[in-house]
Known about the structure:
With about 160 residues, this protein is an all-alpha fold. The protein has helices at about 1-10, 15-30, 40-65, 90-105, 110-145. It has one domain (about 40-145).
Amino acid sequence: MTALKSLLFFIFVPVLLLGFIPSYIASTNTSLLDIGVFRYLALPFWLVGAAGMAWCFWDFTFKGKGTPAPIDPPKELVISGLYRYVRNPMYMSGVIALLGWLIWSPSLSLILASLSFFVAAHLFVTLYEEPHLRKTFGAAYEEYWRSVPRWVPRLK
C-alpha cells in the first residue's frame, strides 16, 4: 500500500510541478532567445532530474517505509543513496529538471517558476521539514544534519 501511495504522490506532485506546468508555460510563452538545436541539451537535465526523483521515491518507500508526502512520511531516517551527498536530493532533482526547462524554452515565466519552486522548497525545508526531522529522529538526524550539506553536494 505504501508503494501505491508513493506512486500516486509521484504522479500528482513531481509530474505536475516539474513536467506538466513547465511544459505548459514553455508552450504558451515566447522564449527570451532561440537556441535552436541546442535546446535538446535540456534532455540530460530532465533525465537526471527524473532519475534522482525516482531514486529518492524508491528509498523513501522501501528503506524509509513511508512516502515523500508529508502526511505519510518515512518511519525510518533515510540517509543512504543520494541522501549520502545532500540532505534534499529530491528538491535538487526538481531544480535540475527545471534547469532543463529553462534550457528548452528560456522565458521570464519559467525563470520565475523555477525561483518560486526553490524558494518554496527552501522555506518548507527550513521551517517545517528540518524541525520535524529533529523532533522525530533526534540525535541520528542531528549527526546527519551536521555531516551532510542541505543543498550543494559534497562529493567524497
